[in-house]
């Protein structure tokens, strides 16, 4: 998998019309809500001396 970022020349990009359509004309997205028990995770984060909110984004 290529993880390197590179700039896109939007003026010459062949997929520009599709990008415009799906980002400006028809923005799409979805949400998902689930209930999970994070009690053990919370305790492990606190035992490690970390703050909860920032820690959940690195797990």
General description of the model:
The structure is a single chain. The protein is mainly alpha-helical and 59 residues long. Helix content is 39%, strand content 0%. The protein contains three helices and no strands. It has helices spanning 16-25, 39-47, 52-55. The longest helix has 10 residues, at 16-25. 0% of the residues are buried. The model has no long low-confidence stretch (mean pLDDT 88).
The portion of residues assigned to helices is 25-40%
Kindly report the average pLDDT value: 88
Determine Rg (CA atoms, Å).
20 Å
Oligomer: single chain
Largest pleated sheet: none
Point out poorly predicted stretches. none
Question: What's the number of extended β-strand segments?
Answer: 0
Instruction: Quote the distance from N terminus to C terminus.
Output: 21 Å
Computed structural class: mainly alpha
Question: Which features characterize this protein?
Answer:
elongated, single chain, 39% helix, mainly alpha, 59 residues
Please provide a brief summary of the model.
This protein is an all-alpha fold. The chain is built from 3 helices and no strands.
């Amino acid at each position: 998998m290529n993880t390197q970022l590179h700039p896109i020349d939007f003026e010459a990009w062949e997929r520009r019309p599709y990008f415009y359509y799906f980002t400006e004309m028809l923005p799409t997205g979805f949400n998902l809500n689930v209930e999970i028990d994070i009690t053990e995770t919370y305790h492990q984060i606190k035992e490690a001396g970390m703050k909860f909110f920032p820690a959940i984004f690195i797990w």
